[in-house]
Each structure stands twice: as structure tokens, then as C-alpha cells.
From TrEMBL:
Protein name (database record): Dinitrogenase iron-molybdenum cofactor biosynthesis protein
Signal peptide: none
Lineage: superkingdom: Bacteria
SUPFAM superfamilies xref list: Nitrogenase accessory factor-like
Classification via InterPro entries: Di-Nase_FeMo-co_biosynth, DiNase_FeMo-co_biosyn_sf, MTH1175_dom
Taxon lineage: Bacteria, Pseudomonadati, Thermodesulfobacteriota, Desulfobacteria, Desulfobacterales
Domain Dinitrogenase iron-molybdenum cofactor biosynthesis: 13-105
């Protein structure tokens, strides 16, 4: 399973970034934390609009199964849904990327049914 986690840094000990579209990095790991791919999301950090949609499209291209983040706006959420990517929130309360993946594996993160923040957050 490919799990994407919004991150403030480039390794699994980095803090989870609560933002999705404007996160500094998005790390893609497998459910066992054995493989790591770093997506530099800097192009979207200062984007005027569409940051979430662009980030969601990137995850779709990478064939991600699940996104762990803090907040996801409506346009990004719809784009993720269209790509078949489930979104779990509250990952930012876990601290690190590694802790968020472990919390997800243990069933402690709930899937969102809809966006949990207005656009342009």
C-alpha cells in the first residue's frame, strides 16, 4: 500500500505538515516504512490557487492509495476521490511521519467523508 504523508521535511522523522496542497513536502512510503519517495512540493507552497488540485494530481500519478494529512480543502478532496485516494485526517496530531503511518496502520486515523477545511486554507 502506498501512503502519502504531508511533511515539513524529507525523512520519516520529519514533522507532519497539517496542510495538504501547501505542504513543503509529501512523502510516499509503504505501510511498513521500508520505501521512501520524497516529493518536493515547493511549487505549490506559494501558488495563488490550485495548490491542492496540483498536489492531488501528483499523488494520482504516483498511484497512492491513502493520504495522511491534517486538513484537505474541497477541490483537492474531490480530485483525490476521483483518483481513488482515501484521505485520513488528524495525522498532524501524531507528530512525525513515522508516527502517523504507525497510527494509520493501527486504525487510529479516521477517513474523511468530505473536505475538512474551506479552500485556500
Amino acid at each position: 500500500m502506498k501512503i502519502a504523508v504531508t511533511s515539513k521535511g524529507t525523512d520519516i522523522q520529519s514533522a507532519v505538515d497539517p496542510r495538504f496542497g501547501r505542504a513543503a513536502y509529501i512523502l510516499i512510503v509503504d505501510s511498513e516504512l521500508e520505501n521512501l519517495e520524497v516529493i518536493d512540493n515547493q511549487k505549490n507552497v506559494d501558488a495563488f490557487k490550485g495548490a491542492g488540485i496540483q498536489a492531488a494530481a501528483t499523488l494520482g500519478e504516483k498511484q497512492v492509495d491513502v493520504l495522511l494529512t491534517g486538513y484537505c480543502g474541497p477541490n483537492a478532496f474531490r480530485t483525490l476521490q476521483a483518483a481513488g485516494i482515501k484521505v485520513a485526517n488528524d495525522a498532524n496530531n501524531c507528530g512525525t511521519v513515522e508516527a502517523a503511518v504507525k497510527a494509520f496502520n493501527e486504525g487510529r486515523l479516521a477517513f474523511l467523508k468530505d473536505a475538512n477545511v474551506d479552500g485556500h486554507w
